[in-house]
Hints:
Elements: E1 3-6, H1 10-22, E2 30-33, H2 37-46, E3 51-52, H3 55-61, E4 64-67, H4 71-81, E5 90-93, H5 100-106, E6 110-115, E7 126-131, H6 137-147, E8 152-155, H7 161-167, H8 171-189, H9 195-215, H10 220-227, H11 233-242, H12 245-266
Parallel strand pairs: 1-2, 1-4, 2-3, 4-5, 5-6, 7-8
Antiparallel strand pairs: 6-7
Amino acid sequence: MNTGFVGIGSMGGMLARGLLRSGALAPENTWAANRSQSKLEALVAEFPSIHIASNRQLAAECAVLFLCVKGADAASVLAQMDPELSPEQLLVTTASVIPLVALETRVPCRVAKLIPSITQEVGAGIALLIYGSRIRDEDRKRLEELLGCISRPVVITESQARPAIGLTSGGPALIAYLLQSLATEAVAANPGFPLELAQNLVQETAAATLRLMSEGNMTAEEVIRRVAVRGGMTALGIEILSRSMPQAWQALFRETAEKERKQRETLAL
């Protein structure tokens, strides 16, 4: 069964490479289309047997189509694919701003939405799946088995998408920022303390903490309770963070939801 990737930029390229490297997809059954020829050449250099095609040719050859372009670019790309799209195909968009009902109205295919994470580069993390109304049981099985090779697929509803995306697809950047900020401010408050050392300490501690929670079956609350003993310096640190962190997270989820709502209002397929 041929699988095609329309757009091999940051997320599309990561998704294609992850599935090919894991063996979930065979290169000879994989097709790719992209505006940038250099990105296609780089993919072919790694997987010489894949097929490079136009958007229309890819749509004609593939039973499963991953539409990995921005929401604003989807209309023009779909217009090129239109003559070859059929009800027997499965079209999966990675654009969170495209409502599935709008996509179902626009194309004859069965449709789904996939929100991957950069962590799939190492075969880990959550891949969010949202299914359209025409999806079949075999589509679910196919997608979840395929993505299970590089992630843990989690099926959600479209109403759950925005907070779930913030926690999974956006999560690595948010977590990395917090770790970087912690190291940077430790150095700023303690002149002479090396930034590289601070970054190494924070990164290894974060990795060990997650391992402790996973392998030791400890919840976040248990970790805090055991480390932040009453009257200690860490307890003071938690108290300080509690004054501003909840408000920062509230603003993040509120403002990103509002931005996505505005983007949807201007989106035309």
